Structure formats: structure tokens, C-alpha cells
Amino acid sequence: MARLIESAADTIVTPPGTSVAHSTRLIGPDVTRAIALFGVIVMNYHGYLNGSDIRNDTFSNRLFNPWIGVLSTRFAATFVTVAGIGITLMTRRGATSGDATSVDADRWRLRRRGFLLFACGYVLDWIWPGTILYFYGAYFIVGSFLFTLRTRWLVVVGTVSALLGAGIAWWGFERTEDGHSTAWLFSPASTRSPRNLVFNTFVNGTHPLFPWLAFLCAGLVIGRLLPRMQTLRVRIVLIGVALVAAGYAVNAIVDRTVGAGVSTPARRWHLLVRTDPFNRQLLYVVTALGSSILAVTLISSLAERFPTSAPIRILAGAGRMTLSIYVVHIVVFNEVVHQRHWVGDTGLDTALVFAVCVWLAAVIIGWLWHRRFGLGPAERLYRNFGG
To answer: Which tens digits make up the pLDDT trace of 320-371?
Structure first.
């Protein structure tokens, strides 16, 4: 199976300008991006509204807990996977033609766009701590070095980033057990010093390169497979299901076998099989990667099957404006919650209703804007600067 995927991904050259290629390459990722943004808004609003009052006492609370819940960062991981797909689509012509000038132009386009996102995200992080925006910029900068690699090397890079993330977290656990403080690495006060910014970007932030490069690399590979997705879709779905099922099965078996012990060996085992994002363990990457693959594949399949239906067209239009919508959801939150005090920390239900209303309004307005003006305001700035 691995050889099949590598062969398909490394040898496909998509003929430009065909309607089928356009549908496959654009509609599916755009719709996926719009839906993933809904999950991002829900998690952000729930976390920012309810903060330390969030509980795990009910199924819904455990599901939507933005730090340790089943859905925690899964939507953001899907967003990063789609970013990898976008990089592949944007750079395919130069990468497949082997034209050095075209490849170099693509590299610098990604770096300019990445730098802009990183710089703007750094400023935004002062207002909206934990924003994914500057990490997104870092992914684009790193992606500028990756898009010409063979698929096997993309798999290696993704695997190494996951191993580094888990290894650094394990080192931190062992240092703490030995009585040493690791706060300098894992709990920096803010991103406002150069050192802390580097630590957050690579290790300690909400979406650090180690291990989140695994999701970007997966997207780069999926992007190469899109022209043959009709024949490979079932196999890719099975891979996604297997990753999710295997990850949670190992977690459940080890947790039940070890029990609720508080000894160091027991806590080592519990750490090793954690599936929540902020412990950076391999099973988190496995399960989040599996769910991202499933989301991208299944949503894209639905979008390609009904490309002219109203919901798909509206979501696709909004999906091309997710940068603008992402910024708007922050502005709306600060205005409604902090300035006007219309919404307060009254629980998950309030956060869900608030998020649904903002997302639906943003999707409809984004679609209408895209039909009339094309690029959104943030996307226009992004393209004008980055090319």
C-alpha cells in the first residue's frame, strides 16, 4: 500500500485547465476548510468564554473540552492538512515540470506569504493568545523547502517531527521526575521575547512544528493523490479509520491494564498513550492524523458529488475566505464579549450557540462577498504581498 501511494503521488502530472481537475483540486479542500473553521470557532469561543470553569462531568463537556477533549485541536489539524494540500496544488506545475525558475518562484512565494502570516500572527497573539496564524506562517515557510521532496521523504519528515515532539515531551517528564524545572521550555511567559517565540513555534505553543509538521506533510501527500482520488478514496478512508481505531484502542488497553496508579512507571505508561494534544505523544498524532484524513477525504467526496448544490457552493465560497473569517471571528468575540458584554461565561451551550451564529453569518456573508468581489480583504492583502 505504501509503495502504491508513493508511486501514484510521485508520478502524477495533472493536466491544467480541465473542469474535472478544477472540481477535484479546489471544491473539496475549500469546503473542508470552511467546515474545519466551524470547529475552530467553537473550540476558541468555548475556551475563551469558559476558561478554567470547563468540566469533564458530561459526555458533551468531555467531547468539546478545548484542551483534553476528543475534538481538541482536531479541526485545526484538519486545517493544517488542507494547507499542505494547498501547497501541493499551488506548486504542482513547477514541481512536476522540473523548471528551476518556476520552483524558485514558488519557494519565495510561500516564504513571503509565510512571513506575512507569521508577522501578523505574532501581533495578533498579543490580543488572541494561542492563535494558529503565526504557526500557519511557519508551516508555509517550512513547506517552501518540502514541496519538491519525494513522497517517501515527506513521510520521513512528518514521522521525525512527530517523534521529536513526543521525545521532547518525554524528556520534560523525566527531568521533572528528577526534580528539575522545565518551565523555561514548556511554560514560557509569553511570545514577546525572541527565545520564547522560538520555543512556542517549535515546541511549546498551541500548534508547534513538532509534531504538527506531520499534518502538513500528510496534506502535501494527499494533494499529490487528488487526481487519482476516485480510485484511491476507499483505501485512504480505511487508512484513516485504522489510525483512529488503533490509536484509541491502544490508549484504552494500556490505561485499563495499568490502572489509576500514581507511581512513576504507571505515569510513564499513561503519558505514553495520551491522545490529547498538549502532551505531544505519538497517539495524539496518530488519531488526529487519522481524523484529518477522514475529514478531508469524505468531505471532498461529498463536495465532488454535489458540486452545484447550494450548500456546497456557499461553503466553497466561504472556504476561499477563511483567513478573513478567522480574523472576523476574533473581532466579533472581542466586541460582543469584552466591549458590549452581551455574552458571558455561562457554559458550553452559550459558546455553541454563539459560535454557530457567528459561523453561519460569516459563511453566508463570505459567500456573497466572494461572488461580488472575489478575494476577501485579508486574502487580497495576503496575495498582494505574497504573490
So the answer is: 999 999 999 999 999 999 999 999 888 899 999 999 999 999 999 999 998 9
Query: Which triple of cell numbers denotes residue 336?
Result: 460582543
Q: Residue 286 in contact with residue 274, Cβ under 8 Å?
A: no
3-state secondary structure 289-355: HHHHHHHHHHHHHHHHHCCCCHHHHHHHHHHCCHHHHHHHHHHHHHHHHHHCCCCCCCCHHHHHHHH
Q: Do residues 50 and 348 touch, judged by C-beta distance below 8 A?
A: yes
R_g of the chain computed on alpha carbons: 21
The structure's pTM equals 0.91
| CB neighbour class for 52 (10 Å; exposed up to 12, middle 13-18, buried from 19) | exposed
Question: Rounded distance, CA 85 to CA 11, Å?
Answer: 16
CA–CA separation, 166 vs 336, rounded Å?
A: 39
Does residue 1 surpass a pLDDT of 60?
Answer: no
d(CA 268, CA 255): 11
Q: List pLDDT tens digits, range 54-70.
A: 877 788 888 898 888 89
Q: How far apart are CA 230 and CA 301, in angstroms?
A: 9
Cell numbers representing residue 56 in the block: 469533564
Between the alpha carbon of residue 374 and those of residues 321, 325, 369, the distances in Å are: 9, 14, 7
Q: How many Cα atoms are found within 13 Å in the side-chain-facing hemisphere of 19?
A: 2
pLDDT of residue 15: 30
Contact call for residues 21 and 89 (beta carbons, < 8 A): no
CB hemisphere CA count around 78 (13 angstroms):
30
Cell reading at 314: 456557499
